[in-house]
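Request: Have a read of the protein record below and say how the chain folds.
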Amino acid sequence: MIEPKSQETTVQRILNAAIADVTVHGFERTTVVSIARAASMTHANVYRHFESKTALFDAITQAWLKPLEARLSEITDAPDPARDKLERLIFALFRAYHDRLDMSPQLFDLFVMAFRENRTPARQHRAKIRTLIDRVLEEGMSTGAFSIRNRGQAMSLTLDSLYRFVQPEVIFLDKEIPRKTLESRLVITTSMLIKALGNLIV
């Protein structure tokens, strides 16, 4: 029983050191040696828990995404009407991504890198978001909130409409645009999307 607890503590110490190092120096200048130094251990010990620096960066991204995905799942499971759920889901995702960019731009870079390289955290996160949206669309169909003839096309319309607002690389490119401006545009886009889903457009 003692060994797993000890191992968990070591892993968390490494992650905390890596987060601190990336926050100060950026991911390109962060090394396993500097992380090990900050965690007061040898770099060999870091490699015992993470096979590479990229694996460590993936773990940082996954640790951040886990509570976000839990919040999104709570929205999807809530008793609200499907239209309200979809709107809440969209804005929760938008705000979480922008909070990350505003408060920890260096850590947001890790997130962008994961998406750019189609790494495991990005693939899993995309799949999770698609699953949650699909559940809301299905619920909307069953309750009559959405007049959808083809759920696959409805999913494509939803993702295409939101691309600028929830795609990490695009968010990074748009970082000079005031957040309030983007959020105002998202309000209009979301309203148009929900109206389309309710009017047999797809």
